[in-house]
Amino acid sequence: MKIAIIGAGAIGNLIAGYLKLKDADVSLVGKQDSVNAIKENGLQISGVRGNFNIKIDTADKLNYAPDLAILSIKTQDIKKAVGDNLDFLKKTLIVTTQNGICADDLTARYVPKENIISSIVMFGATYLEPAKVTHNFEGPWIIGRIFEKVDEKAIKVSQIFDQIFPTIVTEDIKGMKAVKIFVNANNCIPAILGISMQETFSDINTSLISIEIWREGLNIMNAAGIRLVSLPDFPVERIKKLTSLPAIEAAKIFSGIMQNLSKEPLYGSILQSIKRGKPSEIDYINGEFISLAEKNNLKAPLNKRLVEMVHQVEQTKRFFSREELLKCYQIHGLSGQAGQ
């Protein structure tokens, strides 16, 4: 099977590199700076599995029709990425990997729904410069179908993916994608502060905001009738338990979890985009809470303010201080001080 990875960022590079190490017939499509760097120096992967330098075919556009294409760009880039390569993708099986819940619908504007396989990436990577990616932590790859039942094509894809990551096939991909929003929803905070996840959540006050993000999001999803389905190692009960505990107790637990995610500094996808001078996917993560709230005549004041702050950082290139961030609590009439 000829495989094309469209998007040479953290996840795309990692997938392409590991598939190549398994002797897969794989190529990588990325922006010109990434293409040039990979051609000159190879694709460099470091992290939990060791260090690799991998030679891989790379181009800025597809020049053949692959059997399988994996979209590893941000949600907001789907239109351009698919559009630029549409001549070679019309009959191709396409896997989406994006955070949020919009990627499959956006992709379906260009290719037949039966050609789309949805997926959720639970492994983590960091990409801050072309041709270099750090594999921060392991995790499964979950695949399913949004528009129809899981079929033999999806099973075949799962077998390919299982060579590089433990792969799970599910009929509940839609409910799992909704839960993945909670996994990613706190990425906005290190993006606002401009520091790693570990440093961000070593502070209990900052972790208090994270719990409030989840509380607001859970209330919105419950009111909207969204069915949440547990992810491997991230059960729905974790969200419900932490949001039901006293705030300080929940914040301490959350802080401990986040500080132990990775030995290497972990920045989250939103901050990685900002550091590379690219628009982030914030509108498709915390922005989903806002959209759901608006559709159901509800409000999402905390998530709305955090989205605004991320966009302000994108535009001004200036990060906020912790003190400025904690003012978000004032929306809810909270002090933002641990122990109060």
Give the overall shape.
globular
- Per CATH, the superfamily of the largest domain is NAD(P)-binding Rossmann-like Domain
| Share of β-strand residues | 15-25%
How many DSSP H or I helices?
Answer: 15
Low-confidence stretches: 333-340
Tally of structural domains? 2
Order of helices and strands: EHEHEEEEHEHEEEEHEHHHHHHHHHH
DSSP summary, beta strand count: 12
CATH class of the largest domain: Alpha Beta
| CATH A-level architecture of the largest domain | 3-Layer(aba) Sandwich
* Terminal Cα span: 59 Å
Any idea what the radius of gyration is? 20 Å
Biggest β-sheet description: 8 strands, mixed
Rounded mean pLDDT is 94
How is the CATH topology of the largest domain named? Rossmann fold
Helix content: 40-55%
Sheet/helix structural class: alpha/beta
Strand order of the largest sheet: 5-2-1-6-7-8-11-12
Polypeptide structure, described:
44% of the residues lie in helices and 16% in strands. With 340 residues, the protein is an alpha/beta fold. The chain folds into two domains: 2-171, 3-Layer(aba) Sandwich (Rossmann fold); 177-332, Orthogonal Bundle (N-(1-d-carboxylethyl)-l-norvaline Dehydrogenase, domain 2), CATH 1.10.1040.10. The protein has an eight-stranded mixed β-sheet with strand order 5-2-1-6-7-8-11-12, with helices on both faces. A four-stranded mixed β-sheet has the order 4-3-10-9. Helix 1 (10-21) links the parallel strand 1 and strand 2 (25-29).
